[in-house]
Predict the 3D structure of the following.
Amino acid sequence: MLLAIPFSSFLIGLILGHAALRRAGPEAAFGLFLMFTFGALYLLWRETFTVGIDVFVYTLAFWGVAVPAALATGIGALLGWAEGAGTPARAEV
């Protein structure tokens, strides 16, 4: 059951990275990647200045949610770029 959270975080990041690059362009995918990366850095910062059992919570959130989401967003964006050679697939109106 504990593996469901990192797996879903990775899967959602993978889908978001791919969809953002293909639909909105590289700026959106890079923005998502930065959001997840800064979230991971914030959790790491909070972990270093926290004492007690809360360190365990920040560690689990860092390694189990934020890091897989950031890595998967980058991987999903790379897969989306490789699939469409970096050109966004925008709908023609």
Remarks:
- The mean pLDDT is 85.
- The helical segments are 4-24, 26-48, 54-84.
- The chain is about 80% helix and 0% strand.
- The two ends are 45 Å apart (CA to CA).
